[in-house]
Amino acid sequence: MNKSLLIFLLLGFVCVMSAEWDVSALRPGDVVQIRVFRVEEFSRSVRIGDDGSFTFPQCGSIEALGKSPKDIAAVLTERLSKLVATPHVDVFVESWGPRTVYILGEVNSSSMSLELPTFSRMTALQAISAAGGFTASADLTNVAVLRRNQDSQKLVRMPIDVSALVSKDSGGDEFILQPEDTLIVPKAPPVYVSGYVNSPGIYQIDTQQPPLCSELLVRVGGLSEEADVNDVRIVRRNAQGVRETIKVPLKDVRTGKYEADVVVLSGDYLIVGSAEKIFVLGEVNAPGPLTVPPGVTITASRAVVLAGGFTQIARERAVMLIRGQEISELNLRKFYQDPERQARDVELQNGDILFVPESFW
Asked: Fewest beta carbons less than 10 Å away: which of 42, 177, 234, 326?
């Protein structure tokens, strides 16, 4: 992309993000009182229509959206000067129309609407506070505001990393809401716990106080008898979207080295394995370990068959093979659809973990 064009686009985005809303600016639904000195037939109250304008006798349509009462008085004075000698026009706000913002998602008061204050501003964090604050499962890194562009009338999604805002020296309470904004607080993705634990499954965690790995293992009933305490790992996507494996030294934690514990984040996969078996976990009909007899070769697609096959919501194109500290992604659908590819199926080793994620589409 041309460098100057990129700078122009970035500046345009910054302007949209930083543009402040003038609380005194007129909007649809506002009622203004117009007085023309000594010409009573022109004095009246008018409501600003949905298109941001109103009609005035002998003056036609008057555009009022975003303008102040003083601006309207100036326009009327100019147009009435053709009919009245030196007209004196005063415009006052008789009543304000609704200035509503909407809050959806993970807030304690559920979905709701708020009226913006008439003569002051409201920030995103103030609105969330008025809605009872975040729930424990709110995703603070993906909060967004939907705002309609006045020119194109298209909705624009404006992301707000609330976790960054609240940590700023200024307090971070800087995102000013405008009428008809929709503030969306999504639910954070869960943590997937599988392998040799007593209660494997999908768990929501407190995003504001995420648990340590040892704490989450207690919540899921602890390790089973067959678990290998030296084979506890977390699979996590890094900032670049690449999966990486984090080995959890659970044995050290149990001996008092608590600083070695690892914080579990939303979207993590917590896997407890055993080096003597192959594990097929996730969206298969019979997840769990597979015992490999000596001299027998098991491929990835064969392991899925032995685990009962894919469930209806399995993401067959993105199966994860976890081998030690390495993670690779397998497209097992193609092995089922193209017999010629079966010769290139991946051979599994003891200690491998085959994880079949859920497909959301």
From this structure: 326
